[in-house]
Design a protein that fits this description.
alpha/beta, six-stranded parallel β-sheet, 17 helices, 13 strands, globular
Length: 421
């Protein structure tokens, strides 16, 4: 059976997402026996330098026609798209099957069908569902858990669009992958998906040192001489749910209540909330304590983890977060927000604080500063957790889903076979 994984771009700019994608590719490369199944990687990237022993790369761009043809097809699709939205004409449009013209530019489906892919795994969990059977990684249901956040209700196409897309994708999926039991229960409760179709595969602790530099976009670099000798580290885009403000307020408390000056290093792209955060930094007089390096290279990211006094991960979203797992593998102690599912994911390898309580965070930071034994214990627990479930283990569990579905897919020849209902 032919199976595939889909990663939109190999040069993904979201740091943790890029690292996770590379972990998946690396995990497939480490598995020796794939029985009789053929594995493909579908992407919109060209991947000229891509090398993998077990994945055959297919660039979807090869199935996209030139711009003139694309524009023409898009214009043609506007008429049936309009008819499908009008209440009085919708039933006639459905009878004439005009929807097929709306879906005319689904190039991913065309590429998958051309290669007779029987099951595809959407690694990132994003995008419209395919017509062929698919697996989808469910990172979270945070637009339901935290609907008050601007990125859930006011950004992009809004909450309704997020929910409609998620509902359609989860209900149509052949299998769903959650990282925790809590994540599985959220999907089951919110979208009424059959419990046996939701597979719990914990996200692995993976080492950034393993990845081929070609997998990363390394055009960003920092001047390491500008780094303070001792610093807390927080890699996160500037979004409200990343909760930078609680960490900034905790630094102010440490200075005023505990007479402790601490430095903070931030990395990550600005998604619209940076000005607000840095206004607070200026207002509190912490400009000299906080450095933001924007996007960084993979090499610099590893360096920042290894030399940080601790990772402080303040996100309001969960239950699965990747930076704490990265920190475990690189010997960086972790202080993380106590979101739903954090205890299940991180265990005793991290200190947890109440998510929006800067006083609790300041207390947890000062306890780590005053107890080097605790810090070394966190490092040891993190490293122990890191070797417990590798990227190879993670990918092997996903491959087991491919094998499980192959027994079902024997019942028909191809996914595009014309069957009369």
């Amino acid at each position: 059976m032919r199976c595939a994984i889909f990663i939109a771009r190999l040069d993904e700019q979201k740091v943790s997402q890029s690292n996770f994608n590379n972990m998946i590719i690396n995990g497939f490369n480490e598995i020796d026996n794939f029985d009789k199944h053929e594995l493909f990687l579908f992407t919109f990237s060209k991947g000229d330098s891509f090398k993998n022993n077990n994945l055959r790369l297919v660039s979807i761009t090869d199935f996209i026609p030139n711009k003139l043809i694309r524009v023409t097809k898009r214009c043609i699709s506007l008429i049936p798209r309009l008819l499908l939205t009008l209440p009085y004409l919708r039933r006639y449009a459905i009878r004439l099957n005009l929807k097929r013209f709306v879906e005319i530019d689904n190039y991913l489906d065309k590429a998958l069908t051309h290669h007779n892919i029987r099951l595809v795994w959407f690694v990132t969990g994003h995008g419209a569902p395919a017509r062929i059977p698919y697996i989808m990684t469910v990172w979270d249901c945070n637009h339901i858990m935290n609907p008050f956040l601007p990125e859930a209700s006011y950004s992009g196409l809004g909450w309704d669009s997020l929910e409609n897309g998620m509902s359609k994708a989860t209900r149509k999926a052949t299998y769903l992958i959650a990282g925790t039991e809590i994540g599985k229960q959220q999907v089951k409760n919110f979208y009424r998906v059959r419990e046996d179709l939701i597979k719990v595969i914990p996200f692995p602790c993976y080492s950034l040192n393993k990845f081929d530099a070609n997998y990363f976009n390394d055009k960003y670099s920092i001047n390491r001489t500008e780094l303070p000798k001792q610093y807390l580290f927080y890699p996160a885009r500037f979004l409200p749910h990343k909760n930078h403000i609680t960490l900034i307020l905790a630094l102010d408390i440490l200075r005023k209540k505990y007479n402790t000056e601490l430095n903070l290093v931030l990395v990550g792209r600005d998604n619209g909330n940076r000005r607000y955060v840095f206004d607070a930094i200026k207002r509190l007089g912490l400009e000299a304590n906080v450095r933001h390096f924007g996007m960084v290279s993979s090499e610099d990211l590893v360096y920042l983890y290894k030399n940080a006094y601790a990772l402080v991960y303040c996100s309001m979203n969960g239950p699965d977060n990747l930076p704490p797992l990265e920190a475990f593998t690189l010997g960086c102690p972790v202080i993380a927000s106590k979101v739903i599912g954090a205890t299940e994911q991180l265990g005793d390898a991290a200190i947890l604080f109440e998510t929006c309580d800067e006083n609790d965070l300041a207390t947890k930071i000062i306890s780590l500063l005053n107890d080097e034994t605790l810090r070394q214990s966190l490092i040891a627990r993190g490293l122990k957790k890191a070797v417990g479930f590798s990227e190879k283990d993670y990918v092997s569990h996903v491959y087991d889903i491919f094998v499980e579905f192959s027994r079902i897919a024997r019942a028909w020849e191809r996914n595009d076979v014309r069957i009369e209902p």
